[in-house]
Amino acid sequence: MRSSRRDFLARSAQLGVVLGAGVPLLQACGDSGKKSVSTSAIADGLEPEKGPLRIVNYADYVNPDVIADFQNEYGVEVEITTIFTDTEVVSKIASGAIKVDLQHSMANTSIGNLISGGLLQPLNKSYLPNFANVIASFNDPWYDPGAKYSVPYTFFGTGIGFRADRIDPDDVAAQGWDTLWNATDFAGQVSVLDDEREALIMAMQRRGLFEINTLDPDVINQALADLTELIDLVNVKYNIEAYKDIPEGTTSLAQTWSADLIAGAAGYLPEGVGPEVLGFWHPPAGEYVVGNDSMGVLADAENPVLAHLYLNYLLDNDVSEKNFSWVGYLPALTKLNADYVIGAGYVPENLRVCVPTDEEVAKALVFKPLGVDGDALYEEAWSKFIAGG
Amino acid sequence: MSWLVAFFVVSVYAVMAVAFGAVDPLLRTAQPKWNPLSWDTKAMSRIVDRILHGDLGQVFVRTGAYIALALVGCVLIGYPVAYFAARVVKRRRGLLMAALVLPFWISYLMRMLAWTNLLQPDGYVNSVLRFLHLMDEPRNWLNGDSYTVVIGLVYGYVPFFILPLFASLERLDGRLIEAGRDLGASAFQTFRRVTLPLSVPGLMAASVITILPMAGDYYTNTYLTSGSPKTTMVGNQIEFFLQRSSQPQSGASLVLLMMAVLFALMLYYLIVTIRQQRAAER
Taking Cα atoms as reference points, which of A316, A353, A349 lies closest to residue A70? Predict the structure, then answer.
């Protein structure tokens, strides 16, 4: 299952005693099969409920000022339940452990399951006039045809983030993913994403294999062997900390998400260090993995109208810009393109490459659901990698 | 007995129901199987096979080694502190104990976060070592080294070690120590021949209390190594399977196997304790 940089906090917040594994164990249990599939959207023209609007989201993944503005504008309270992994939120919603109106940041590999499991309700677009602001590619995403159940929140690509003052960007561009395997001079300062599919796919792409949803055990095992080489070659780490580790200099290069460099430039460079020390490389369009998080309204939401109003609010250009200025992850809105966010000073020019272009999004390689057995192949390989190979 | 049923038997059975159960194909939540006749042992078999013939064996060995080394560290630090508090300090013992308990007021997570800052290349640990001329170049303590994990475990769990040991040492019959001195033994001999043997029950209790949480710890390693495959502990694997995978059965299987190992240790502790009690009663 896909994770994100917010996942890091998850593993920190759990009690670590071995018998305490019962906590996540119980969280892992659910009765998802009992919920009925919601097939109808709310009616047009309904008055918003009085709230409070209950949202589930990753920590620090929405600007608190945006939330405060929404509360003032609609005169309601907003309660945010913080979760740490996509897997966690799905299981908690399915088991009824948390009751919320709105899922703020769904991984696109989960949306199909949430829809099939009857956990999301169809959206009534009459409440979402700002959906017109969304980049065209997200009007009919593969994970939710017709965007009936979800609206995009942020999007980002996967590449190599690096310290441009230590590594020549031309060398990275020439070597591509091999840069990580050749970085023996930077042993201990190299990391890959703590995400089994992202990391294993990178190893496949290095060998020129671009079927990123492959279920071929031989290909996956070869990727595992290649990834395991990094342990001895460069003392590789697996984490989602590149957004701060690269700017702070403790990591010199990392497989990471493009948005992490933008966020890093905005908030994690030491005093006196400029954004020119940061670099990002990604594969060309057609080989570039671009992912996104999406928002949706839960099937059993008590405040569905208010939840729709919130979605619409987040799709407003100005609100979204305010949110981006704090979060650092790009919203999927037409207005906030590379020229705009660079011109407005949110993204330094040397990190223009961190903003996926329309062509890159249109031709993007995307992770698709693999089913339980398919996921298990990647998870088993990842478990072996993090065990030390 | 009802305590045992409520907090152990039922819990363990629930873990077994998950380990030998299924998973929701859509939402990946565990679907426990409560009827043993329908249990599926595939996940357990795969995990056992990986332990015996594959990568997970080294993870268990590594975890055991970290715990053993951390336990040694706890003894070296905890015993003198507990002894000092229990046998030497006469006044303000309450204040000292409050100081010992103080770390409990801060969550383990926050303490580990503090250490990640202290151990950064430009952190205070390097600054102090360089100030003392014990080091020329700053060291990256968070580079995936085993000793950093062991230091973290010692730091995190030494209070758990000190408190039961303190309670045990405080209850020592002082007349036995005085008798040792009266019979001509030096202070060291008295300690070695009288105090230390009498401390064994306390040491064992402290060790058990420390070992149990250390065996399942995963965030000490996660935080202090930035996620290094070289230092992965069993807890990391459990966390991965239970929190972030579609295979909760594998995570629950690991929990059961880890419990079996710990149960063997607990059994040994109980046998030794019972023998000592019987010997004392004679």
Answer: A316
